[in-house]
Amino acid sequence: MLVSASAQELPGPSQDLFNSPFYTCTRNFYVATNGSDSNPGTQASPWQHIWHADATPVRAGDCINVQPGSYDQGAVVTRGGNAPTPTGYVVYRCTQLNACVITACAGPDTSFYIATPNNVGPSFVVIDGFELAANSYCYYGSGITIGNAQFTNADGPDHIWVLNSIIHGYGQGGISTSQGEYFYFIHNTAYDNSRVTCDAQGSGISIWEPRPVPGYTPSGMDLTFAPPFHNVVRFNVTNNNAVTQCGTAAVPYDTDGNGIIMDSFKVTGYPHQTLVAFNVSYNNGGSGMHLVNSSNVTFANNTAFNNQIDPFNNGSIRWQIGVIAGDNNVIINNVAYGVPATTASDPRCQGTQPCSLTFIGAFLGASFGLGTDDNNVWHNNVSFIPGSSNGSENDMFDGDAGKFDCTMNRCSTDPLFVAPSSTTTLATSINDLGNFALQPGSPALGYAQPQSYLPPWTRDAGACDSSIAACPYPGPAVQSSSHHRPRH
C-alpha cells in the first residue's frame, strides 16, 4: 500500500499520498516559469521548460521539481530509471499538489509523452501532482501518452506511475497507453476528454494491448506493491469523457468515451493480472468501466453511475460495467447504477429513434462474436436501474447472465448514494460533481467480499467506504476548475 493500510482513501488526487510518496530523490532539479534553460536547474537558478530535464540527461533517482504556475509545454520523456525501488525512478513532480498547469494539447508541445524515438521504453518514470489542462481539444491529443504512436509491435514503456493528477480537455484521451506493462494510475481525476478524435476514439483512462517486459525478472516493489497484479488502476475519478463531435443521429458510430477501458489484452496474449479498483466513474458517454477482448482483469470496489449516455454510440444496449469477449476476469464488490431515458423527449436522446438510452443496464457480460467469454466471476455486486421495465436485464445483459446469480449479488437494489450527480447530460465542467458516499442503511454497507489484494478496511461494496461523508473529495478538482478554458 502507498498510504496507511488503516486509512480509508478517497478517489481523486490525494494530499496524503503526495506528501508521502514511495520514491526518494537522490538529485533534485527545478523548473519555474521565470527560469532559464541556460541555468543549472538548481532551486535558486531553475530551468524554464520541463522538457529540458530529459535533455540534461536525467538518471535514476532524479526528481524534476516543477514550481507552481502555467506552462505551455510539457515533455517528451525518453529517459527513465532502472529499477522498481524508491531511488530507481525519474520523477516529474509539481512542488504543490495540482498547482502546475500544463496547457499543451498535442504534438511536439505535448503534456507528457513517454516514449523513445525507436518506440522501446523508457522505463521507471513517475508523473506526480500536475494539472494537465489542454488549451483546446486537439485531434489525437492526450494528457499522458505512454507507448508508441505508430502502433508498431515494439515493446512499450514499463513501470510508469501517474499519481495525483487532474487531466482534462484532451481531444483523444486522458491517460493512453500502447504496449508495455507495470502501469500504475492511482489517485487521478480525468474528465472532459475524448471529444473530437473520431478515427481513434479514446477514453478517460485506457490500457491497450499491454506486453510483458522481455526477459524481465520481477523484483523490489514488483513483489511488494499489489501482487500479483502487473497493472493497477486505483482510486481514480473519471467523468464526462465522451465522443461528442463524431457520430450523429443518422450515423451513430461512436464506440468509446469510456471512463476506464482495458482493451485488447488478448491480441498480444498478455498473461498477467490487472487490477481496476476503487474508481468512481460517472456521466461518461461510454461505459464507466469497460473491458473488451481482454483477460485476467479484476474489477473490484468500483462505483459506476449514469454512464453510456452518448446518444450516438452504436451500441443498442447500454451498461455501466461491461466485460466483452474476456476470460478469467473477476467482477466483485462493485456498484452499478444506470439512469435510463424514460421517453424519447429526454434531451439525452438527441433525435435518435428509438432512443437506445431507454435500454440501460447495470452489468454486461458477452462475447459479441469477438471471441470467448469464459470463466468470469461475478460476486457481491450491487445493481440498480430506477424506473426501468427491462426486468432481469437491468442487472446483467447477455451471455454472462446465467453466471450473474442474484443470490450472490444484490440485484435491482438502490445503493442509496448520498447525492449522485444531478446533471446527467454530457457536461464539460469538473463542477458536475456527485457524492457517491453511502447513506445509513445502504445495502452496499458491509457487503464487500474481503480479498488479500484489497485494503483491510474494505467493508462496503463500491468505491466509497461508509466512514466517508463525501466521495470523491471535491477539493483539488474544484479549486483547479478556474484553469479550465472555454470550449468551442
The largest sheet has its strands arranged as 1-2-5-8-11-14-17-20-23-26-29
Q: What gross morphology would you assign?
A: globular
Which class do the helix and strand fractions yield? mainly beta
Computed over alpha carbons, the radius of gyration is 21 Å
**Helical residue percent band:** under 10%
Query: Can you tell me the residue ranges where pLDDT is under 50 for at least 5 consecutive residues?
Result: 475-488
Instruction: Name the CATH architecture.
Output: 3 Solenoid
CATH class: Mainly Beta
What's the oligomerization state?
Answer: single chain
Mean pLDDT over the full residue set: 89
Number of strands: 33
What does this structure look like?
The structure is a single chain. The protein has helices at 15-19, 221-224, 475-480; strands at 27-31, 62-66, 69-71, 75-77, 90-94, 100-102, 112-114, 123-128, 130-133, 142-146, 158-163, 166-168, 173-177, 181-186, 189-191, 205-208, 229-234, 237-239, 260-263, 273-277, 280-282, 289-292, 297-300, 303-305, 318-324, 330-332, 335-337, 360-366, 377-379, 382-384, 396-397, 417-419, 435-438. It is globular. The protein has one domain: Pectate Lyase C-like, CATH 2.160.20. Strands 1-2-5-8-11-14-17-20-23-26-29 form an eleven-stranded parallel beta sheet, with no helix packed on it. It has a ten-stranded parallel beta sheet with strand order 3-6-9-12-15-18-21-24-27-30, with no helix packed on it. Residues 475-488 have low confidence and may be disordered. It has 488 residues and is mainly beta.
